[in-house]
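FW: tagging you since you asked about this chain on Friday. Here's the raw sequence from the shared folder, copied in full. Didn't touch anything.
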Amino acid sequence: MTATVHILNGPNLNLLGTREPHLYGHTTLAQVEQRCQTLAAELGLRCVFRQSNHEGVLVDWVQEARAAGAAVVINPAGLSFRSIPLLDALKTVDLPVIEVHITNIHRREAPYQQSLTAHASTGVICGLGPQGYELALHAVAARLREAATV
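HL: got it, structure written out here
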C-alpha cells in the first residue's frame, strides 16, 4: 500500500507568482504542485494537493487527512499566526506534519514571526522558497520509512 501525503495550502497562496514576487518569487502554485506530484511519485507517495482561502475548509482537509491515515505538509500562510482551530486539527494527526513557509518568517515583521500552528508540527521548513515543499516531502518519506522499521 502506498502512503499518502496531503499538501495543504492556506490563504492567498493561489496568488503565488504574482503576489509580492520580491518576497515569494515567481513560481506559481501550479508549478509547486507539479514538482510535488513528480517528487511524491519518485518517493513512492501518493500526493493530494489543495489550496483554500478559508480556515474551515483547511480544518476539514486536515481532519480528512487524519481519517485517511495520511501525513500532512501544510503551508498555513497567514493562518499560521492566529488559527487555534487549525492548530487543534493538526494536533490530531498521528503521522508526520511538516509546516512549510516560503519566506523566512523569523526575518519578517513581528506579526509573522511566531507560528502558532508550528506547535503541532513535526518540523518546520522556512525561508527556502518553493523548494521547502520538496524538502518537506523528503522529510515525510524519511519519517514514514523510519516508522515502518520500528
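FW: Strands lie at 3-9, 45-51, 71-75, 97-101, 123-126.
HL: agreed, and The helical segments are 21-24, 29-42, 55-68, 84-91, 131-149.
FW: great, closing this out.
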